[in-house]
Write a structure and sequence with these properties.
heterodimer; A: alpha/beta; Rossmann fold; Dimethylsulfoxide Reductase, domain 2; Barwin-like endoglucanases; six-stranded mixed β-barrel; 30 strands; B: 205 residues; alpha+beta; three-stranded mixed beta sheet; two-stranded antiparallel ribbon; 18% helix
Chain lengths: 789, 205
């Protein structure tokens, strides 16, 4: 029987206080005593839109306005009905659109940067100031002195203006690419580590390992695919230090010591090798495992010593049939997977043999020590992954990805997937698996601009701007990027203060707004000056936005703001006249997936149409042809030979490793995690969601709290050498002893004091400059101490 | 005639509270009130777990009016404002309700709310389905199983929006309905069965 006391019911029934600090005028409710049916007189309109991509969910909405107000949001009906979805955040827009946090007029800074003191100005003055500053920087220092920094929540990030100005245009450098650095190198397909198979393919999996992946809270609208797979017989295993909802709903939860993911993957690789659970034929045929490593320089053996392309200078393998060296791509070759040979006096061995040798040190017992997972659990995990059938190794972006060794974890996981034949397999896959991001692609055309206009190459990863000389003088900031896209906010703020000019474009007054010289009030995605708003491709469909509301307050759409800045700079003739014009150009594409999809057809189909793509789930690499130079899955990374990481080897975490003396001073690992109630920094100001979710909390295990004499509700100071912040203490068994958690995204004004980014680690791993996405910000490799404030 | 009911698969419930916000919007529920809520079994906390790390359990249970067949609120109401309607829903006649709150004391599920004061709505207009009646100060309100939608043949909004597809809605009197099948095949339970209220909301564990 269910154990629910009446007290449970009552406690859970009491929602947040109604005292909202609103004035009487705003609450005037002269209509609420009307008879029951009176509301039906009101004029209702229905239009369709989609939710912009901050969480990645991209739900399509049917919106009802009544007397010009957004009264109702419901899921729109998609051609593929599985996607007729919405979550609490989409529904909560009915309130958030009207939030008191809306920036109502253009603003000019009157205090210091970061202080948050502004005075309202006219649009004319605001646009003129922005245009003048952009022009001055462009003419004096060149286009690359302007940095357009935007968050993923920005649907229209001024791409055209940035291109015309030849400026830098950056989203989240150093974030959400750690595993991708290690995986994409092998496939040659640069998709920030995204897994190869759509989540609708999960039903074909036998084992699904969700690794630091809180899928059921961060990909809420994909949760049906989790349960469908489970009901179809997949065993779902969650590896996470924290007892998340995903851990609770999985068949097995394996709690792991924070930061030890690499050790666990390496031990799994060792177990697969020593037990012969690998697929030799797959490795010989589809991967670089039979390629030969030269003992003299650790490079792969090729036909000649030049750097010519692979077609002219192929990799060599040892042919089993002729017992001789042959080009790997010879039609009749049967490469030997294992062995050591001598070629012109130089010893060579296969990548596979080298892997076996390198893996000997990574025993399950060694990993058990580092991960604090019992050895037997590791053995069973590896066996179930290798032998139960098609298997998924699905990482999240918030766990193993946010450590300085994430490239190695991604590389080792790729090898594990390759050993077991799980890449390019129905029901298989390795990589970032967060649902919605993976589906059939389609290529929209770019907006036509003269050749000389090109986005400037990113000068450096944005995390280096605060500490390395660079050309950036002006920042055009869209979203809460200053807080969210950098660790160590104190240092970031000092850099921002050196800039000549900062403009922020945002509907809401988030933390980043406070650092700006000019603030432009953007409309939300529901408000447009035009009948048609933005358009994007997601989940095998094209989605379009219609105007739901006229822009509120003095706000303007991102499209309109970009256009007006361009016009003021004398560049208006390069811009599309309306969003619909822009989308017509984008849909004018040779891609057959877009055939028949036009703005007009989208409108006629309630703003959602399916791409002309096959009915089956999207699965990459099914033909075992990869985008690498060899067209094979390349497991040996020559570019990391100097770093002794051509095959992944264990590496200690820079800050949290127990051997670091700092662990004595700051014994707790600090983790910032995304929570279902927010989409990163969005919805922190939602009053509807705020009735459920109480606000910032520093969560700590009761054992660690007891040692520090902390109790529920205490205001605590969280600190290290980088900085400090204050939050409300929450004792919970969900958190692993030795770790503390603070949900990410809260704005400084929601905190008791400071900002959670004041403490986070901004130290880069130098090796990662060589990799596709540059160094990862190791947010999770952060030590803190907590005390009563 | 029908006996409308719902089956909630707790294995699938992820505690996302989408149903809570959907209900608030659809039914124009003001601040400080919620017709439906998601509790964590055995815990008084939001998203609470039971046990000590790492031996933990967490089960979410969404709870609203159970639309009991043997509804104690119906019996307790001295003026006949609360009744079972012809589709088996427990409904409140807002014009008849005298605000005595006997029904609230009688309900073992704490499913009812009282309008103590003038409603505070943020935003400050009537949102949601315009067919949903307004409620005045001094009366009781609760889940109607989205009467205004289900009368049109639609599902309650909490069912339609559930992202994990944990909720199934239908006629308990129809042995071929999906709800009847799930109750039969999956040993669905009722909340506080020992109270004899015979809820029309069933739960699968």
């Amino acid at each position: 029987m269910m154990e629910i006391s009446r007290r449970n019911f009552i406690k859970a029934g009491a929602l947040g206080a109604t005292a909202l600090g609103l004035s009487g005028g705003l609450l005037a409710q002269d209509k609420w005593l009307r008879p029951v049916s009176a509301g039906k007189d009101a004029q209702e309109n229905v239009a369709f839109t989609y939710h912009p991509p901050n969480c990645g969910g991209r739900c399509s909405f049917k919106c009802t306005t009544r007397d010009g107000k957004l009264a109702k949001i419901e899921p729109n009906e998609w051609p593929d009905k599985r996607y007729s979805l919405i979550c609490l955040k989409g529904l909560a827009e009915v309130e958030r659109v009207y939030s008191l946090d809306r920036i109502q007029t253009p603003l000019k800074r009157v205090g210091e940067r970061g202080e948050g003191k502004f005075t309202p100005i006219s649009w004319e003055e605001a646009i003129t100031t922005v245009a003048d500053n952009l022009k001055k920087a462009h003419d004096t220092y060149g286009g690359s002195s302007i940095l357009f920094a935007y968050s993923t929540g920005i649907d229209h990030p001024f791409q055209i203006l940035a291109q015309i100005l030849c400026a830098q245009h950056v989203v989240e450098a150093g974030i959400d690419m750690g595993i991708g650095n290690g995986y994409d190198e092998a496939t040659g397909s640069y998709n920030v580590g995204l897994i190869s198979n759509e989540s609708t393919d999960w039903v074909n999996s036998k084992t699904i390992i969700l690794w630091g992946n809180n899928y059921l809270e961060t990909s809420i609208t994909d949760s049906q695919f989790f349960f469908n797979a489970k009901e179809a017989g997949a065993k779902i295993i969650c590896i996470d230090p924290i007892y998340t909802t995903t851990a609770a709903k999985s068949d097995q939860w394996i709690p792991i010591k924070p930061g030890s993911d690499l050790a666990l993957v390496l031990a799994m690789v060792s177990l697969v090798l020593e037990n012969n659970w690998y697929q030799g034929e797959y490795l010989a045929k589809n991967t670089s495992a039979p390629f030969l490593i030269r003992s003299d320089n650790q490079k792969l053996l090729r036909l000649n010593n030049s750097d010519e392309e692979v077609d002219n200078n192929p990799f060599l393998v040892w042919d089993e049939v002729t017992n001789s060296l042959q080009p790997y791509n010879d039609k009749n070759v049967h490469p030997k997977l294992e062995g050591e040979f001598t070629v012109d006096g130089i010893k060579v061995k296969t990548v596979f043999t080298a892997l076996k040798e390198n893996q000997r040190q990574y025993t399950p017992a060694w990993a058990a020590d580092l991960t604090e997972i019992p050895e037997q659990t590791i053995r069973i995990l590896a066996e179930e992954y290798a032998l139960r059938g098609p298997a998924i190794l699905g990482f999240g972006w918030g766990g193993a990805d946010k450590w300085g060794d994430s490239d190695l974890t991604g590389h080792a996981a790729t090898i594990l997937g390759a050993l077991t034949g799980n890449i390019g397999r129905i029901g298989g896959g390795v990589g970032i698996d967060t649902g919605h991001f993976v589906s059939w692609p389609a290529d929209l055309s770019p907006w036509p601009l003269p050749e000389e206009f090109q986005i400037a190459p990113r000068e450096m990863t944005t995390g280096d701007f605060p500490s390395k000389p660079n050309n950036v003088k002006v920042m055009v900031n869209m979203g809460n990027t200053i807080q969210q896209h950098f660790a160590n906010l104190g240092k970031t703020a000092k850099w921002v203060d050196t800039l000549d000019f900062v403009v922020t474009i945002d509907p809401f007054h988030s933390t980043s707004v406070d650092y700006s010289d000019i603030v432009l009030p953007a409309s939300t995605s529901f408000e447009w000056e035009y009948d048609i708003g933005n358009m994007l491709i997601s989940r095998n469909h094209v989605l379009l936005q219609q105007k739901i509301l006229e822009p509120l307050h003095q706000s303007k759409s991102d499209f309109q703001i970009e256009k007006e800045i361009a016009e003021k700079m004398g560049l208006g003739h390069y811009m599309p006249k309306t969003p619909a014009d822009y989308h017509r150009a984008r849909l004018d594409s040779p891609d057959p997936a877009l055939k028949g999809i036009t703005v007009e057809n989208l409108i006629a189909n309630n703003c959602v149409m399916r791409l002309n793509v096959p009915d089956e789930p999207y699965r990459q690499f099914m033909d075992q042809v990869y985008a690498t130079p060899s067209k094979k899955l390349e497991l040996y990374y020559e570019k990391l030979i100097e770093d002794k990481q051509a095959l992944p080897s264990y590496e200690k975490q820079q800050e949290t490793d127990p051997s670091n003396s700092l662990t004595k001073k700051y014994p707790l690992q600090f983790c910032q995690q995304r929570v279902k109630y927010l989409a990163h920094s969005q919805f922190a100001n939602s009053l509807w969601i705020g009735q459920l979710f109480p606000g910032p909390r520093l969560e700590i295990n009761p054992t660690d709290a007891k040692n520090r004499n902390l109790k529920d509700g205490d205001i605590v100071e969280v600190f290290n050498d980088r900085g400090k912040f204050r939050s409300t203490c929450k004792l919970t068994e969900i958190i692993r002893p030795g770790q503390v958690r603070h949900f990410e995204g809260w704005w400084s004004k929601h905190m008791s004091e400071g900002n959670f980014q004041n403490v986070t680690n901004d130290t880069f791993n130098p090796r990662q400059y060589k990799l596709a996405y540059g160094p990862v910000i190791p947010f999770n490799d952060t030590l803190v101490e907590v005390k009563k404030a | 005639m029908a006996r409308l009911g719902m089956v909630i698969d707790l294995k699938r419930c992820i505690g996302c509270n989408t149903c809570v916000i959907a209900c608030k919007m659809q039914n124009n529920v003001p601040m400080g009130m919620s017709w439906t809520r998601v509790i964590s079994e055995g815990s008084e906390e939001l998203d609470g777990a039971v046990g000590e790390y790492p031996f933990l359990n967490k089960t979410y249970i969404p709870i609203a009016c159970q639309h009991c067949e043997n509804a104690p609120c119906v019996k307790a109401c001295p003026v006949g404002a609360t009744s079972k309607d012809d589709k088996g829903r427990v409904v409140v006649d807002y014009d008849r309700c005298i605000g005595c709150r006997y029904c609230m004391a009688a309900c073992p599920y704490n499913a009812r709310m009282f309008n103590w004061q003038k409603a505070t709505r943020v935003p400050d207009f009537n949102y949601g389905d315009q067919a949903v009646p307004l409620r005045k100060v001094g009366i009781v309100e609760k889940c109607t199983m989205c009467k205004e939608r289900t009368d049109l043949g639609l599902e309650p909004l909490c069912v339609e929006v559930c992202p994990a597809k944990a909720r199934t809605f239908g006629d308990l009197d129809d042995p071929n309905s999906e709800v009847s099948r799930l109750i039969r095949e999956q040993n669905a339970e009722q909340l506080l069965k020992e109270k004899g209220t015979r809820p029309q909301i069933y739960y699968i564990r």
